[in-house]
Amino acid sequence: MESTLGLEIIEVVEQAAIASARWMGKGDKDTADEVAVEAMRERMNKIHMRGRIVIGEGERDDAPMLYIGEEVGICTQPDAADFCNPEELLEIDIAVDPCEGTNLCAYGQPGSMAVLAIAEKGGLFHAPDFYMKKLAAPPAAKGKVDIRKSATENLKILAECLDRAIDELVVIVMKRERHNDLIKEIRDAGARVRLISDGDVSAAISCGFSGTNTHALMGIGAAPEGVISAAAMRCLGAHFQGQLIYDPAVVKTGLIGESKEANLARLTEMGITDPDKIYDANELASGETVLFAGCGITPGDLMEGVRFFHQGARTQSLVISSQSQTARFVDTIHMPKEPKVIQLR
Fold first, then answer.
1. Where are the domains of the chain?
2. pLDDT tens digits for 107-141?
3. Per DSSP, which regions of the chain are E strands?
4. N or C: lower Cβ tally within 10 Å for the chain?
């Protein structure tokens, strides 16, 4: 799968990032997201595959493009039988976030990316549009920190795993009212907190690399993005756990479903019989082969944002594979048809 799709999924996230970046700083997050969705969908429909969106822009009635359940790829077209051999057909599940951190893009802030994860059919958890309690940590702490433990306990374990003092650790937390107690506990334990407004996929993945000065992600964010983060962290051999949060009183913001009871009923309909189950990265991204791809829209810890020059652009992407056990940073110059200038810096 990697050899077949590797370069093409890079181009999918690149095209989404370029489209969204043209709206960077214009204060219009909806348009920044919409153009990224359209660009991602257009490029995916040129790939020789039968793909199914398992995490997308929402339900079909609310999201006309890249909705959950939508099929993409050349082999989903009406005349696919003419050029797609059923015996060689590549069927994959796809989780997408064409503009992860729409507010970050709209207001020119760091950390917005175009991201996707893929696995063979059935290889990605079909997360509902709920919230998820998350814990991400470096490979050295995999299986040692635990989402069931308090932040204080996990910080002590993390410090031991990384051979650092607790006051040398940096924990990323989304700036939300629901995290006030968590933030206080982290600070009281002696660690430092880096607050973010959006974009916890980038924050989670940063924990997987040494040198980012990010040592953990804690708190509650969107469940679909949790699956994408888990796919990347599984490929990196890093720690990721997630637990669905279905009670609106916990998140203190809007949530699909009018009540806790309604949300529990929806989980049952989806076949989730244990709503309080704690998932690890291997369960959220269970495929034999898992690929993650992301392209910076605005600059972040891992990648530069899109940089435009006359009629062209330069992008930086990250592709992580469980198959080849690689993390590739790809620097691409997108040239106009008749270039006058090809900008390197």
1. 2-124+288-334, 131-284
2. 999 999 999 999 999 999 998 888 999 999 999 99
3. 50-55, 71-72, 91-100, 113-120, 131-137, 170-174, 192-196, 216-222, 239-245, 278-280, 290-296, 307-309, 312-321, 326-334
4. C
